[in-house]
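[stage:ingest] chain + small molecule (N0T)
[stage:ingest] validated
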Amino acid sequence: FLMAASSAALASEIPRIVSHQGRHALMVDGAPFLILGGQAHNSSNYPQALDKVFAAIKDMHANTLEIPVAWEQIEPVEGQFDFSYVDTLLKQARQHQVRLVLLWFGTWKNTSPSYAPEWVKFNNARFPRMLDRQGKPNYCLSPHGDTTLRADRKAFVRLMQHLKQVDSAARTIIMMQVENEVGTYGYARDYSPAAEQLFRQPVPAAVLAHKKPLPERPSSGTWQQVYGDYAEEYFHAYAIASYIEEIAKAGRAVYDLPMYVNNAQRDSTESPLLPWHENFASGGPTYDVIDIYRAAAPHIDFASPDIYDPDWKKFNASLQHFQRADQPLMVPEMSNGANYVRYLWLVLGRGAIGVAPFGIDYAEYSNFPLGHKASDRSMVAPFGAIYAAFRPMQRQWARWAYEGRTYGVAEGDDRQPQSIAMKGWNATISFREWQFGEREYFKDLKDTPVGTEIPNGGVAIAQTGEKEFIIIGQRARVKISHAKGEPSMWARVEQGHFDASGKWIMERNWNGDQTDYGLNLGATPTVLKVTLNTY
Ligand code: N0T
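[stage:predict] done
[stage:export] tokens:
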């Protein structure tokens, strides 16, 4: 009886982010949870559109749906709120046993006020747009508009009040994204009189504490004095982050769900890092200003990258930038293209709290060339095969990630082998190998394995013991050797899965051809429980 009572108490625990020694976990129902997510299209936030969303989410074996809630739909008339869509969404998500991450499309959706109600987006007098250097309004609402902030905050608070009322028991909603891909295209900052006045003030101490002044610059002073050519971007980031903080803080005071922001990135490999030059949305949470967001928005748990560049080096660099001791890594959007499937192994292996390809939705829309040309099952299935393998052990995986036991690789654009240094052991992952033999045995063989035309291999490894590993992957060869060079061999290589109670169920034991040339994972994502020993 006591155990039943305590697990019931745990089941209604509110989701939250926990951190320990620079690693992080998203706690859902009292235990680490791995978001195997998919994001719906932008206009699927209506009851009639949900069937096509949930059908795709189901085929994907996703455990979480990310979907917008638009300001224009919950407050179409000022002061009159309508949560009927949210209620339908919740009901269907529960029927499908899928959790929700709600995306608040408020003042900014990809920098634009398109999702703000009409009474907001066409009233420049009440809800000021940013002004350019000539004093002309541009498309983007100003982060210095107090009335805009108060109106957005009021709507968001009403939403959180409603969510608290209808979801405190079930906890179907596990996280909130506040706004979407904020920043401003084409302008470094607002040049309105209010903004000008603030730009000439000293940089706030909280910012200075997080974001170092440029070399050979004064340690305090105005934005220009401290940050030079970067001042305008940093100032605008601070303004937007502070605005978002007010919204998140007020929302969390009502219902304290984890909250985050997402980012349409700048080039993650640009070196040296150049000042903003119209090459990305200024003021958004790009990696170079995460510190400013940390300083200005303590009620935002993390900033996260939306990844739409398939370049392997850039993808890796993005993850490195956003995975930090002071915030968890999550990829709330990445392209649903076939050349991104491999990145699930990398993201999940690196210990992210979650990932969600974008456009997991059978609405007939394709954002090609960002994403897949198709919008049917053929787009979803490759992601779904991986989620299906992870899903039975998502709780274990999230815990291993929190404990720092996990590693991941995605096949590179160069198709070359990669190595992973684990505790006491090194893994080498190679791609496009035949499953039998070593390359040098068959030097003249020109054939390449079927299904490897594009880079689509990957592996994630959890080191679950001193000599024990859970290996999950596809289209890759894994070899593990002792870090200090002692001779070793496989003790056991069990293929299997975890059952609902978390018990390992062996399906077969790999040996002979299946282990003599490394562990050759095929096209179907496979889970292995591996032990090695030295002799
Ligand atoms: C994303 C999505 C949706 C040349 C694009 C990515 C989503 C938003 N924006 O389908 O609109 O709501 O967050 C912008 C990426 C631009 C990259 C251009 C590369």
